[in-house]
């Protein structure tokens, strides 16, 4: 990461020790009030994860006092959670959502991709393809049917488990039950291939 920052002209890097970040210890004394968004999708399969995310981001923002915070769209739910935390704690920092970086073949870039062999990387393309299929048919088919077809498509490409494929309200990740709705939509998925858990998402409008 340091090398990449240097190669892109970064002049200053804040690289604190654990003691500097958490002088009073890492135990979270007062949980963040994140509501239902903490317990759905990623939260269902990684309980407590978003409390930890909010703790470290909150601490970082308090120390650095930035004007802007840049977060990648690939971690879509994490963005929603951090935004909720910032409202709760009255943190006046502009959130900039950076589009997901993808390889030329469409695979979302992730450090976890390095743990996949070439065959698994090729099969992993099904995630973005399944989401694209949802986008292409979002006005034509029942949402639950689209989700089920995408799940089967992923499993048929060598994935051992699909945690979820879900079409949600893009503003708050609440469930949406029928096509023709006027709310902005996002499709999200998480699945395992060769023991590696990959996530992806796609805005549908």
From TrEMBL:
InterPro entries: Pantoate_ligase, Pantoate_ligase_C, Rossmann-like_a/b/a_fold. GO terms for biological process: pantothenate biosynthetic process. SUPFAM superfamilies: Nucleotidylyl transferase. GO terms for molecular function: ATP binding; pantoate-beta-alanine ligase activity. It comes from the Bacteria. It catalyses: (R)-pantoate + beta-alanine + ATP = (R)-pantothenate + AMP + diphosphate + H(+). Its EC number is 6.3.2.1. GO terms for cellular component: cytosol. Pathway: Cofactor biosynthesis; (R)-pantothenate biosynthesis; (R)-pantothenate from (R)-pantoate and beta-alanine: step 1/1. Keywords: ATP-binding, Ligase, Nucleotide-binding, Pantothenate biosynthesis. Belongs to the pantothenate synthetase family. This is pantoate--beta-alanine ligase (AMP-forming).
